Amino acid sequence: MKAIEQLGAKTLSFVQHLGRAVLFLFAVLMRSGTVLRRPSLMIRQMYFSGVLSIIIIAVSGLFVGMVLGLQAYTQLAKFKSADILGYMVAAAMLRELGPVLAAILFASSAGGAMTSEIGLMKTTEQLEAMNVMAIDPVARVVAPRFWAGVLSMPLLASIFNVAGVYGAYQIGVNYFGMDNGVFWGQMQNNLDFYYDVVNGLIKSLVFGVVVTLIAVYQGFYAKPTSEGILRANTRTVVSSSLTILAVDFMLTALMFTK
């Protein structure tokens, strides 16, 4: 009986947090006019959330592409179809691995930083001071970070994809000796711009909304203590990763199943 009560309590808590997060998203959208009037606020946050994440995204994409190219080549060679290595790797990166892994990396780096920064501002009563000065903290602090994360995510996913394809190229052409023209030709002939590229960008944009919303929400509602910020940071990474995988399943079912 106690286990059922605990399950019910956790379910109610989840529903409450979900509802508050949706209302928080509406509040951010309604107060996004400051971002349009002062785009420098968003550009500054895009540097911290996007530009500073490029190295980890590019390096991770390079090694993922190399590993994927190595495994794909060994399997395709058994069926004498290694010529489609470039297409196989590019399709996998564009449709799934690029958006998903880039979003998880973004959540663990930029997302956690957003949560910690906003949580620290709350702990040091900076947000309360803004309210006293008649400055809306949602419009001044949250909205620029939210839109910076949303816009940065597709760009970072694209960098991840490019680095991954380049890693597969190094394995296929320079390591296994594939023909350079065959590698690129098969990729260009078989990839579909809308089916592969556009759907992948849509995924990364949705992941950007999800990850950034979770990050700013957890930071804004974190307990104003060092322990509270630490727990909010952990919740950001864990919740973002699980939500990305769940949303990815739903988007894949809608986009790539006929």
What can you see in these coordinates?
This protein is mostly helical and 258 residues long. It has one domain. 87% of the residues lie in helices and 0% in strands. The protein is built from ten helices and no strands. The radius of gyration is 21 Å and the shape is elongated.
Could you give the topology of this structure?
Blueprint: H1 2-30, H2 33-37, H3 39-49, H4 54-78, H5 85-123, H6 126-132, H7 137-175, H8 180-190, H9 193-220, H10 226-255
Helix run count: 10
What share of the residues does DSSP label as strand, in percent? under 5%
Helix content: over 70%
Structural class: mainly alpha
Largest sheet: none
| Mean pLDDT score | 88
Q: Radius of gyration, rounded?
A: 21 Å
| Number of self-contained structural domains | 1
Name the assembly state.
single chain
Order of secondary-structure elements: HHHHHHHHHH
- N-to-C span: 44 Å
Tell the overall outline: elongated
- Contiguous uncertain segments of 5+ residues: none
- Beta strand count: 0
Family: Belongs to the MlaE permease family.
Pfam family, one: MlaE
Keywords: Cell inner membrane, Cell membrane, Membrane, Transmembrane, Transmembrane helix, Transport
Subunit structure: The complex is composed of two ATP-binding proteins (MlaF), two transmembrane proteins (MlaE), two cytoplasmic solute-binding proteins (MlaB) and six periplasmic solute-binding proteins (MlaD).
Q: Which tags fit this structure?
A:
87% helix, membrane, 258 residues, cell membrane, mainly alpha, 10 helices, 0% strand, transport, Intermembrane phospholipid transport system permease protein MlaE, single chain, transmembrane
